[in-house]
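Need tokens for this chain, all 384 residues.
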Amino acid sequence: MSSTIPINQSDPTAPTPQNTPLTHAPIAAGLSRPTVPDITEDNEEEELAAVEDIQQTMLGLVQGRLAGLVGRSSGYIESLPTEIKLNVEALKGVHVKQAELQNQYKRECLALEKKYAELHKPLYERRKEIITGASKPTPEEIEAGEKVSAKEDEEFTPPSKEGKEPSADGIPEFWLTALRNHIVLNEIITDRDAAALKHLVDVRIDYLPPTDPKPGFKLSFHFTPNEFFENEVLEKTYLYQEEVGYGGDFVYDRAIGTEIKWKEDKDLTKEFEIKKQRNKNTNRTRLVRKARPAESFFNFFAPPLPPSEEAVESGDLDEEELEEIDEKLELDYQIGEDIKEKIIPHAVDWFTGKALEFEDLDEDEDDFEDLDDEDDEDAFDEEV
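Here are the structure tokens for all 384 residues:
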């Protein structure tokens, strides 16, 4: 750095980032480190426990102090001379143009996605015909699929076709199976839901037209007539904010779902219970049927709503409630993105389960056990 820049010379501390405290951390500021007394065999366990308590106390003190300083200005930026501050403001002006370019880039990417989504539609329609049995697959389509299977699995053996033809029934429960192979969706699809999802024959995506005020996409779930609801199509629309976010991607705004027209006593998002009530005056009893919310995949079409700015600013919602709403919004958006980006374009791989090979599945610690030294060395050798 040039020595001609008039930075305050009275403070020998080097300039720090804006979100880093200028003051030293507690230990560096002169707090004495915990001393470890001599340990004898008689009181070894007590002394070790005392030392651990001291260390935990000091660690909590340091972490608490630093946590309170996160995001606070160090004072460095404020201390810069006006001439330097003008340069900083100029950089912000340049950054505005960068943000405008990123916004333009993302919108052009979205337009490209729309273009190829249209090109995919005839293939999705052909997929639907095979799944529903509306049309039988051609020998060329079967042969192309067998080549893929042979490439993926060296032990694959094509089924004998002698005297056999593709079933006119298509592939029963195709979409139910595909959805259930998705880890998160499997958690929210109940056995009651499965009876309705057996009637799901297609899932499509459509991007919102440029005339809409906000960019976004719509998921459409097509059903055959069933005993649960009147709708032939259930839709879920995801809206983005008009401008891209700080990270350069579209930011989720909100979602809108179809109102499901449930047939009598078939609402899968509710559970009904019969309660007996007694009149205090006449002593007569009656049976009352009450409904309560139930876990169901079909709650997906009644998405959570973001809290209003007024509710947040007024403090009507406490921190826990805001976190809970945020978690629900994040999960809802992630499910929508997974259906859009993974399940719809790769439906056959989700049906067969192959798609799971490309998922980052978290391994449970309970699935592992400690090895003795010899086994540990053998495992290490194998990894190397």
